[in-house]
Amino acid sequence: MVRTLQYLLCGIVALAAAGTNAAPARAPFARRNTTEPGATTYEAEDAILSGTQVDTAQEGFTGSGYVTGFDEATDKITFEVESATSQLYDLSIRIAAIYGDKHTTVVLNGGASSDVAFTESDTWADISGGQLLLNEGTNTIELVSNWGWYLVDSIKLTPSAPRPEHQINPSLNNPSADANAKALYDYLRSIYGKKILSGQQDLVWADYVAEQTGKTPALLSVDLMDYSPSRVEHGTKGTSVEEAIEHAERGGIISVLWHWNAPVGLYDTEEQRWWSGFYTEATDFDVEAALSSTDNANYTLLVRDIDAIAEQLKRLEDAGVPVLWRPLHEAEGGWFWWGAKGAEPAKKLYALLYDRLVNHHGINNLIWVWNSLSADWYPGDETVDILSADVYAQGNGPMSTQYNQLIELGGDKKMIAASEVGAAPLPDQLQAYEAHWLWFAVWGDTFINNAEWNSPENLKTIYESDYVLTLDEIQGWQES
Ligand SMILES: *[C@@H]1O[C@H](CO)[C@@H](O)[C@H](O)[C@H]1NC(C)=O
Ligand SMILES: *[C@@H]1O[C@H](CO)[C@@H](O)[C@H](O)[C@H]1NC(C)=O
Ligand SMILES: [Ca+2]
């Protein structure tokens, strides 16, 4: 229940494209620039081009030109790169996004792919492309069109420095956090960097995982969506609190998100039904206007909704269940109304949520999980305990780009979770990349029950790994 369809489809098209290989023309040699110590630069114009061309019109390039013409989904550049040993490298891409903000897909050795975003620039810029684990010998790195319409000058590979020790905050922000929340936080700190908690969205899909792998996920993520007052008005009856309690009673850990149906202003048309009311495109509710004064009617409705959700969180608190609480998820994407007016209203709403739940309602079982990557959207260290990202990329890769972005965002003082994924990460990859995600939670339905995202073999590998903690392996975490 995420990103725009267009965005998702872009990714899938690009991934499909990555698999095709139409015998492209082969450059006579690959220029390698090893001027910088440890770094090797590969010029794009010397690489293998499919559907793309060399040009020289945009000045400031290195080598003899750059590559352009990413206008079809299958258009790409294939670099052949060498590594003396199997080793992790930092990838830097020299790019000119002269036509606006863009995305490219990086594919390593025809398999794992990652999405790299870059912002509009009228000149060349060196963009971090994340990390790549190269095999000993020759490897291929493809840059596949994705959004297309950008210029590539070169790529640079530098051996990654080992990750320094994490400096995680010893305690939660809320000084009144209850014993259950503290015990969970302490337990999470004790495993961070050493293990990953397996997790699944929705109880029915956690049970599905158990059937498939023989192991039950350690963490269950549930949605308070159907407790939103503008859904309850239409007759919804939430059951996710009961599901959370059920999982907690068998010794599991609980994460909660909230697809907050807009309090008012739902179009409820043929195309945009009331139950889509958390999407920007399904409502004219204006979060910025609502927050502009505390005495306007829509501010009151926001508070009414928060109070309704407080009731549900309180039930979990009363049942002794600490909650990894992830409100206003994916705000920076803009596809949900709470992110539709930019960073400032989203941060303001987060501050209201924090104040209302913690200070007004005195709810003390919450561990506050923030869920956007960008520094502009960050509510601040004082109200965020854990950072997270929602990542939808096929290939069961380690998502190290997003992990490293969040290390940067939190100064390595906050633990980092993969709060929603399409594809569960393979443990050997996580360890090789030192991508120390605290947990992963696979979205339900079309993701967990879809071999293109999670093959039964990969799920088994993941759930049987020593690196991945399952429900049976975390029993008694409250006492540790
Ligand atoms: C090689 O790389 C260095 C450092 O990035 C750069 O200054 C130099 O212009 C490059 N040489 C060529 C021939 O591209
Ligand atoms: C509250 O929001 C609704 C839906 O967007 C809008 O129609 C209404 O005018 C707003 N009310 C106020 C007082 O701004
Ligand atoms: Ca070049």
From TrEMBL:
PANTHER family referenced in this protein's UniProt entry, alphabetically: GH26 DOMAIN-CONTAINING PROTEIN-RELATED (PTHR40079:SF4), MANNAN ENDO-1,4-BETA-MANNOSIDASE E-RELATED (PTHR40079)
Alphabetized GO MF terms: carbohydrate binding; mannan endo-1,4-beta-mannosidase activity
Family to which the UniProt record says this protein belongs: Belongs to the glycosyl hydrolase 26 family.
Annotated Pfam families: CBM_35 (PF16990), Glyco_hydro_26 (PF02156)
GO BP term, pick one: substituted mannan metabolic process
Domain GH26: 179-472
Keywords attached to this entry: Glycosidase, Hydrolase, Signal
SUPFAM superfamilies registered for this protein in UniProt: (Trans)glycosidases, Galactose-binding domain-like
Signal peptide: 1-22
Protein name: Mannan endo-1,4-beta-mannosidase
Active site location: E330, E420
Residues covered by the CBM6 domain: 40-158
